[in-house]
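Hi everyone,

Forwarding the result from last night's run.
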Amino acid sequence: EDAAIFSESLVHLDKPFTFEADIEGKLPEVSVRNLIAAYGKDTRLEITGLINNYNQFDQSNLQLDIKRLTVSQEDLQALIRIGSPDYVSVSQLKALGDLDLTIKAKGKLSRFDYEGVIRTQRGNVTLSGIGQMDKKFENLSFEGPVKTSNLQLAAILGEGVGVDNATLTTNVKFQMRANA
């Protein structure tokens, strides 16, 4: 409730937020020694990292370590609704259950390597590849292999689809565009 005093887009959030931070620097350079954020008891984010001089975008170093991001499906939907108030999670996303992600990124702001794991109740997905962003931090792209072993597709897609567990290795290109 108290978060709503900062923005009307937060009025639907009904669990407490907590933050713990050890951050050093002066913009445009920042070092995050430790950042822990929580929403209720089921959602937690732990990050370390640094960005040096984002004003020199192509030369600016990026190191990001999302040591852990855990989120319940209920909280995920509520947090997405901050930017998209009418959002309703699709049944396939809900079927994954609670999510637990770790990811590391290192390189330049304009182009960086990443690797990580998304753990779900239906199986794990590993990601790695090259990420890129524009100077306005509005458009992101990620490209590289995505792998899973024994992902329980029947539980995600439904029993009638005729697929049970699946092992998959594929290359993916994913883009997030502002105003798209």
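The first helix runs from residue 73 to 80.

Cheers,
N.
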